Give the backbone structure.
Amino acid sequence: MIKVLTILSGLDGGGVENILLNYYQNIDRDKVHIDFIVHSQHKGKLEDKFENLGSKIYRVTPKTVSLKKNIIEIYRIMKNNDYDIVHSRMNVKGTTHLITAWLCGIKVRMIHNHMAYVPKQGKMKYLTPLAKVLCKLFATHWLACSDAAAIDMFGEKAYQNGKAIVINNAIDAEKYDFNPELRCNVRDEFDIKDEFVIGVVGRFHEQKNHKFMLKIFNEVLKKNTNVKLMLVGGGELDKEIHEWVDEYGFTDHVIFTGIRTDVPRLLQGMDIFVLPTLYEGFGNVFVEAQAAGLKTIASLEGVPKSTKLTDLIEYVSLKESPETWANIVLKYKDGYKRESQIKKIREAGFDVKEQASFLENLYLNAVKN
C-alpha cells in the first residue's frame, strides 16, 4: 500500500472536498491510503466521512496566522509518517508544501491547480508568477482540474505536450439523477409550494459573486413575485449576504440552507441553477446542476467552456445588466422537461469510477517509477 498526504484548506463540503470524497470512496483503499492536512481550525462537515474511510486528518496553523508555525508543523508531519506522495491541492499556495516535501526526501510531489485566471491584487500580483515557477520546479507532477486551470498555472506548451495533466472533477452521476420524489421532499422541507426556485450553490466568498446574484434576484422579483432564491453554502461573507438580503427587503423570498452535505438532494428541489461566479478553475457545481437535469446559467468570463457537458447550460456575460440576467432566468419560469443526464455525463468523461481509477493508477505508477 502507498501512503498519500493530501494538503488543502479544509474539508467543509466545498466543491474540491466533495470531489475528493467521491474519488476516495471509489479508489481501492487496499492499494492507496490517503491522509489529509487541513488549514482550518474548526472541524469540517466532511471530516467524519473521511475518517470513516480510514483517513487521518492533521490540523495545522494557517499561513495567515503564522507562516513559520505552518511550515514547521507540516515538516514534522511529513518527516514522521513515511509518506510516498505529497499532493497539494492549494494552487500556488502549495509552493511551501512542495519545498518542505523535497526537504523531507519525499520523491513524488504533486501540485494540483483548481483555479484559473484569478485576479491578482497587491503583493500577490508579484508573488504569484514566482510561486508558479517554484511549483513547477519542486513538483514532480503537474495536475489541474481543467484545460483553463492547466494553461493558467503551467502554460500552454505544458498543457499541449501533456506535461500538465488534467484530471476531470468527476461525480457519481447516479446520485444527481432527477428524482421527482426527492424533489417533493426537498420542497416540503423548505415549505416551497408552487414558487419558481432559483438555486445557488457556492461558498459565501467574493469569488462566487453573491452580491451580483442578489441584484439579479431583485430584478426577477420586479417581474415575478412567485419566486424563491435558495442559497446553499456558508463562509466569510455570511453576515454581509444576510445584511444585503435585509436591505433589499426580500427576506421572505430567500432560503438560507447553510453548509450542507446533501447537495445532490437539494438540487432536485430547484427549478434553475444560476451562479455568476467571477472565476473558476473548472466549476464542478455546474456539472452537478446539469447532472440533476437543471437549466444552468453560468458567467461567460468566469466559467470554462469545458463545463458544457449538455445543452442545459448557457453562458451570460458579467457585463450584461442584472435585468438581462433576470430575463434569461425567467425564460424558464413556466417549466421544462427534466430528463436523466447520466449517459451524457459519462460520455463526457465525468464518471467518478473511471476517473478514480485514473488517479489510482497515477499514484501507483508515480511511486513505481
Summary: DSSP finds 16 helices and 13 strands in the chain.
